[in-house]
From TrEMBL:
Gene Ontology molecular function: protein tyrosine phosphatase activity
E.C. number: 3.1.3.48
Alphabetized InterPro entries for the sequence: LMW_PTPase, Ptyr_pPase, Ptyr_pPase_sf
Reaction catalyzed: O-phospho-L-tyrosyl-[protein] + H2O = L-tyrosyl-[protein] + phosphate
Domain of life: Bacteria
Major enzyme class: hydrolase
Protein name, as recorded: protein-tyrosine-phosphatase
Phosphotyrosine protein phosphatase I domain sequence ranges: 4-103
Pfam family, one: LMWPc
SUPFAM superfamilies, A to Z: Phosphotyrosine protein phosphatases I (SSF52788)
C-alpha cells in the first residue's frame, strides 16, 4: 500500500465482522525513524521480514521479527499477504493466534 492508504475494503469487511474500529488507520512504509522509536518491528510475511532487516540501520536488524516468532511451535511460520491469497479471514485467524503470544511476551518483559 502506498503511504496514507486506507484499509482495503476486504480488510474493512473483517473489521466490521468483528466490530474492530479502524478510525484513522492508514498504511505507510517503514521509516528509518521506526527502528529508533520501537522496541520491536513485527512483520507478517517472510519477504517483509527480510526487507525490514535489509533496511535496518547497522546493528538494529535483530529488532525485526516474524509474526509467529512468539508462538511456540510456529516460530518459523508466516502469514502470506491476503492481497495475494484473497484469504482475509485466514489472515484474521492467524493474527488472532499470533498476537496474544506477542502480548504475553511483552508483558513478561515489562515485569
Amino acid at each position: 500500500m502506498a503511504e496514507g492508504s486506507l484499509a482495503d475494503s476486504r480488510t474493512k469487511a473483517i473489521f466490521d465482522k468483528y466490530h474492530i474500529k479502524d478510525d484513522g488507520m492508514i498504511a505507510r512504509q517503514l521509516r528509518d525513524r521506526d527502528y529508533y522509536d520501537a522496541d520491536y518491528i513485527i512483520a507478517m510475511d517472510q519477504m517483509n521480514v527480510r526487507d525490514a532487516k535489509d533496511m535496518a540501520p547497522a546493528g538494529l536488524e535483530n529488532m525485526v521479527h516474524g509474526i509467529f516468532e512468539a508462538t511456540p511451535g510456529k516460530e518459523n511460520c508466516y502469514i502470506v499477504a491476503p492481497w495475494i491469497t484473497h484469504r482475509f479471514q485466514n489472515t484474521y485467524d492467524s493474527l488472532s493466534e499470533a498476537l496474544p503470544n506477542w502480548l504475553a511476551k511483552l508483558k513478561k518483559e515489562i515485569k
